[in-house]
Amino acid sequence: MAYPAVTAPYGLLPINLIGGQVFAGATRQIPIASNSATAIFYGDIVKLANTGLLVQDTGTDAATPVGVLLGCSYTDPVYGKTFRQYYPGAVNASDIVAFVSDDPDQLFKVAVVSGTTVVTYVNRTSVGNNAVLVQNLGSTVTGNSAVAIIDATNTTNTWPVRIIDVIPETAIAGYPGSYTEVIVKWNEPTTGAAGGHQYRQATGI
């Protein structure tokens, strides 16, 4: 049976860790400010503000991520303790907690797009190159992200993610060596430039 075609971006999905280490689903619980207005979807990129609270990271070529959102919980005044696929924004609660995949060695599966949400491909030659994030708005129906990477990759050392492999199952038929999904890792911070995983920023947040 053929692998399903990738028809839309879906955010950054954790798969395993560098070196083939298993991702066991571990997350860190990080608070979100009460009434924080911005919705954050499952697979969206997030970062720590200088308050120690979590916010969405909207960076593209200079993101400073702490990880990706994998859900949240809070006390709803009507339904009590509530667990959600995504943070819907404007939640008036004092105990909003996000579940974040924050390991700097985390690897993610992600779709390749041509600019916004149009899925395209990269060739095998993109492995080892860096990529820019595309910050599309997620779905309030599914709760899922629509973040992707753009297909124009190169060696720019300030870009936030590096392609380390391709997903063979979603190779495009008739286009040998062309893939609609890839595996990426966070890049290291670069001295004197924005970008890179926050835990490895020597100067702090």
Give the number of DSSP strands: 15
Beta fraction: 25-35%
Shape: globular
pLDDT averaged residue by residue: 93
Secondary-structure element pattern, one letter each: EEEEEEEEEEEEEEE
- What composes the largest sheet? 7 strands, mixed
Instruction: Tell me the radius of gyration.
Output: 17 Å
What oligomeric state best describes the polypeptide chains here?
single chain
Total domain units: 2
Helix content: under 10%
Cα end-to-end separation: 47 Å
Number of helices: 0
Structural class: mainly beta
Low-confidence stretches: none
Search tags:
7-stranded mixed β-sheet, 15 strands, mainly beta, 2 domains, 205 residues, 6-stranded antiparallel β-sheet
Task: Describe the model.
With 205 residues, this protein is an all-beta fold. It folds into two domains: 75 residues, no CATH class; 96 residues, no CATH class. It is 0% helix and 33% strand. It has no helices and 15 strands. Strands 1, 8, 10, 11, 12, 13 and 15 form a seven-stranded mixed β-sheet that branches.
Furnish the topology, listing elements before pairings:
Layout: E1 13-17, E2 28-31, E3 45-48, E4 54-56, E5 67-76, E6 80-84, E7 97-101, E8 106-113, E9 122-123, E10 130-131, E11 133-134, E12 148-150, E13 161-166, E14 178-179, E15 181-186
Parallel strand pairs: 8-12
Antiparallel strand pairs: 1-8, 2-7, 3-4, 3-5, 5-6, 5-7, 8-15, 9-14, 10-13, 11-12, 13-15
Short overview:
By secondary structure, the protein is an all-beta fold.
